[in-house]
C-alpha cells in the first residue's frame, strides 16, 4: 500500500515535470503556459490509459466481476490518490499561468477564480479522496456508510454517464425546435452510431453495478460469533 502510494506520488508529478522540461527544450517558441497545459493533458491521457488497462486486466482475470477480487483493483486505488492531488494542483497551475500576472496578490485572486470555475471538478476529486477511497478500503459491505456510497455511485453513474446522452439530444432539440424523439432523425447518422457505441458499455457497466447493489442489499448482514 505505502509503496504503491509512494510510486504514484513520484510518477505523476515526475511525468509532468519531464513533459514540461521536454516541451520547453523541443519547442522553445512555446510559452510556459502552453508547455504546462500540454503536459497536464499528456499526464491525464497516461492516467486514462493506465486506468483503462487496469480495468481490462481485472475484468479478464475475474470469473465473476461482481464477487471476485483482484489485487490490482485494490492497489490502483492507492496509485490513484496521488494523481487526484497532483491533478488539482496542475489545474491551478494552468490557471495561474493563464492569468499572466504572477504577483502574490494576484495569486490569491487566481486561486479564488480557480475554485469558482472548477467547483465541480474539485468536488469530484475531494469526494473520491475523502469518501469513496476510505469506504472502498473499509471492506464493510453491510454498513450504512457502504450502502449510502453504493446508492451515490449508482445515482451519479446513471446521471453523468447514461442520462447525459438523452439530455444532450434534448438540448439540441431545444436549440433546433425539435422534440426529443425527432432529434435522432435530424442529425447525421454517424452521430447516432457513435453515441450508440459510447452508451452501450455504460449501460453494461451500470447493469453490473445494479447486480452488485442487489446482492449487497439482499444479503443478510454477517453475524459475529459469540
Number of strands: 0
Strand content: under 5%
What is the terminal separation in angstroms? 32 Å
Q: Identify the overall geometry.
A: globular
Number of domains: 2
Short description:
The protein is an all-alpha fold and 226 residues long.
Please describe what this structure looks like.
There is one protein chain. By secondary structure, the chain is an all-alpha fold. The protein has two domains: 1-138, no CATH class; 140-221. The chain has helices at 2-26, 32-61, 71-99, 104-117, 119-138, 144-162, 164-176, 189-218. Its main location: membrane. Residues 1-17 form the signal peptide. Keywords: Membrane, Signal, Transmembrane, Transmembrane helix.
Write the layout of secondary structure elements.
Elements: H1 2-26, H2 32-61, H3 71-99, H4 104-117, H5 119-138, H6 144-162, H7 164-176, H8 189-218
Helix pairs in contact: 1-2, 1-3, 2-3, 3-4, 3-5, 6-8
Keywords for this structure?
single chain; 226 residues; mainly alpha; 2 domains; 8 helices; 80% helix; globular; TLC domain containing 3A; TLC-dom; transmembrane helix; signal; TLCD
Amino acid at each position: 500500500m505505502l509503496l504503491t502510494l509512494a510510486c504514484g506520488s513520484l510518477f505523476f508529478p515526475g511525468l509532468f515535470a519531464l513533459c514540461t522540461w521536454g516541451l520547453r527544450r523541443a519547442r522553445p517558441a512555446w510559452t510556459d503556459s502552453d508547455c504546462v497545459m500540454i503536459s497536464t493533458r499528456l499526464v491525464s491521457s497516461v492516467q486514462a490509459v493506465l486506468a483503462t488497462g487496469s480495468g481490462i486486466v481485472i475484468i479478464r482475470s475475474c470469473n465473476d466481476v461482481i464477487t471476485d477480487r483482484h489485487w490490482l483493483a485494490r492497489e490502483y486505488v492507492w496509485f490513484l490518490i496521488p494523481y487526484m492531488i497532483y491533478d488539482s494542483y496542475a489545474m491551478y497551475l494552468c490557471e495561474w499561468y493563464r492569468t499572466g500576472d504572477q504577483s502574490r496578490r494576484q495569486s490569491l485572486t487566481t486561486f479564488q477564480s480557480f475554485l469558482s470555475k472548477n467547483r465541480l471538478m474539485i468536488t469530484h476529486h475531494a469526494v473520491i479522496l475523502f469518501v469513496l477511497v476510505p469506504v472502498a478500503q473499509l471492506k464493510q459491505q453491510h454498513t450504512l456508510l457502504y450502502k449510502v456510497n453504493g446508492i451515490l455511485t449508482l445515482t451519479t453513474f446513471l446521471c453523468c454517464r447514461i442520462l447525459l446522452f438523452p439530455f444532450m439530444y434534448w438540448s439540441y432539440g431545444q436549440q433546433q425546435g425539435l422534440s426529443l424523439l425527432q432529434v435522432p432523425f435530424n442529425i447525421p447518422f454517424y452521430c447516432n452510431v457513435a453515441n450508440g457505441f459510447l452508451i452501450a458499455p455504460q449501460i453494461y457497466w451500470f447493469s453490473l453495478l445494479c447486480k452488485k447493489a442487489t446482492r449487497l442489499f439482499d444479503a443478510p448482514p454477517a453475524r459475529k460469533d459469540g
